[in-house]
Design goal:
This protein has 181 residues and is mainly α. The protein has 6 helices and no strands. This protein catalyzes the committed step to the synthesis of the acidic phospholipids.
Length: 181
C-alpha cells in the first residue's frame, strides 16, 4: 500500500463525509465545509496520480480504485446539487451515464487484455466537471446572479466535454465492441 493508493482510499472515505456536510442542513457552515472537502478530495486525485507516476508506483489497485474514487466523488456531488436544485437532473444523468458507458467499455476491453488509458478529452472532462461542481457548490445559499451565470457556463461546458470525451473513447475503441466478434 503506497502513498498514492492511500490518497485514493482517503478520497473514497471523504465521499460520505462530504455527503453528511452537504445533506444535513442543520450543520453550521455545512455547505462551506462540504465544498472544502470536495476541493481537498479533488486535489488528492491530481496528487495521487502524480505521486504514482513520479515514484514509478503505478499498481493494479490504483488503476482500478482511482477512477472509481473519482466517479463516487463526482456522482455524490452531482446528486447533491440536483437535490439542491442547483443543476438540472438531465445534467447529472448525462455525466453519470457517460461514466457508466466508458466504464463498461473499459471492462469489456480489460476482459480482452486491452487497457484503455485516459485520453486528453477524458482528462479535460474531469477538470471541467470538477471546476463546474466547485462553482455550483459555491453558489449554494448565495444569491449572486453573476456567479449563477458563470456556474451554468461551466456546467454546460462540462456536459459538452463529457459528451465529446465519451464519443472519443467509443470511436477510438470501436474494435473492442464490434458485434461480429
Amino acid at each position: 500500500m503506497n502513498l498514492a493508493n492511500k490518497l485514493t482510499i482517503m478520497r473514497i472515505f471523504l465521499v460520505p463525509i462530504f455527503l453528511i456536510f452537504i445533506a444535513v442542513k442543520d450543520i453550521p457552515c455545512g455547505t462551506f465545509i462540504a465544498t472544502v472537502i470536495f476541493i481537498i478530495a479533488a486535489l488528492t486525485d491530481k496528487l495521487d496520480g502524480y505521486i504514482a507516476r513520479s515514484r514509478n508506483q503505478i499498481t493494479r489497485f490504483g488503476k482500478f480504485m482511482d477512477p472509481l474514487a473519482d466517479k463516487l466523488l463526482v456522482t455524490a456531488a452531482l446528486v447533491s446539487l440536483v437535490e439542491y436544485h442547483v443543476i438540472p437532473t438531465w445534467v447529472a444523468m448525462i455525466i453519470i451515464a457517460r461514466e457508466f458507458a466508458v466504464t463498461g467499455l473499459r471492462t469489456v476491453a480489460a476482459s480482452e487484455g486491452i487497457v484503455i488509458a485516459a485520453s486528453a478529452w477524458g482528462k479535460a472532462k474531469t477538470v471541467t466537471q470538477i471546476i463546474a461542481i466547485i462553482f455550483a457548490l459555491v453558489t449554494l445559499n448565495r444569491e449572486n446572479l453573476l456567479l449563477d451565470k458563470i456556474t451554468m457556463v461551466f456546467i454546460f461546458l462540462a456536459v459538452l466535454i463529457t459528451i465529446v470525451s465519451g464519443i472519443d473513447y467509443f470511436v477510438k475503441n470501436k474494435d473492442v465492441i464490434r458485434i461480429d466478434k
